[in-house]
Amino acid sequence: MELEKITDYDLGKPKRWYRDACGTALAMDLVGERWSLLIIRELLLGPRRFGEVRAALPGISANVLTQRLEGLEKAGMLRRKLLADHPGVQVYELTRWGYAAEEPIFALSRWVAGSPLHDVTLPLSNTAFMLSLRTMMDRGRAAALEGMGLSFRVGGEPFRAVIADAMLSVRRDDAAGAEILFEGDTDGFKPVFYGPEPLAVTVPAGLVRVTGDIDRAQAFVDCFRLPAFIND
Questions:
Q1: Which of 51, 137, 159, 198 has its CA 20 to 30 A from that of 90?
Q2: Beta sheet of 180-184, edge-to-edge order
Q3: 9 within some domain
Q4: Which InterPro entries match (predicted)?
Q5: What number of other Cβ atoms are within 10 A of residue 109's Cβ?
């Protein structure tokens, strides 16, 4: 008995498909083109305007970004909508299925972080940095900080984070009254959270500004480290 053929690939432009029943192959068909996964990454913390996505991905042209957004929309991963409080302003947001790509993206990030080819000196968007905290946090260490509320200003962009069930939830929000506030840019934050020096060194050096209990802030920073490369 033959299975019914139900696939109909039409994402608005000619493309070579793997034509393979494996889910990995189909995932590559849908998001394997350059920039596609990074566009999804930039939308994981909520809707963004076209210009905001492009600014976060400085190597992408307006034409290519338009093509990728159209393809992801036709694939059912994102949609366009108008902001209710800003008439005429269009944003792109992930669908429920699009948001489900979060875990595969995080898993890929954790896996590749241990590669000797991982160059942490390369540029990183504000969203990518905040998602890296969610991805790389040591849950064992974070358990002792349950309920901690944190604010971040990354390149002037506000974020809020909370530790719950030894996991870090992150959203865009100017959270007043958080226990700890970190301020800086991604170039400064990377060595603070993924380098060897404590806040007692990195704060006076001007890499980051911290408001709140410095010991509690250090305990949070200690929850992050990059894995060593293992190739048995």
A1: 159
A2: 167-171, 157-164, 149-154, 180-184, 209-211
A3: no
A4: HTH_HxlR (IPR002577), SCP2_sterol-bd_dom_sf (IPR036527), WH-like_DNA-bd_sf (IPR036388), WH_DNA-bd_sf (IPR036390)
A5: 17
Give pLDDT, residue 2: 54
Domain enclosing residue 149, as ranges: 122-221
pLDDT recorded at residue 177 = 81
Q: What is the pLDDT of residue 11?
A: 56
Cβ atoms of 86 and 28 within 8 Å: the answer is no
Asked if residues 122 and 203 have their Cβ atoms less than 8 Å apart, the reply is no
Instruction: Say if residues 155 and 186 touch (Cβ distance below 8 Å).
Output: yes
The verdict on residue 157 lying in a domain is yes
Which residues in the chain show pLDDT less than 70?
A: 1-15
pLDDT at 232: 73
Q: Is residue 156 part of a domain?
A: yes
Task: Provide the number of structural domains found in the chain.
Answer: 2
Domain boundary (81, 106, 131) is at 106
What totals of helices (H) and strands (E) does the chain contain, helices first?
Answer: 11, 7
In the numeric block, the tokens 């010991």 are attached to: 215
In this prediction the pTM is 0.90
- For residue 177, give the CATH number of its domain: 3.30.1050.10
In a domain, 102, yes or no: yes
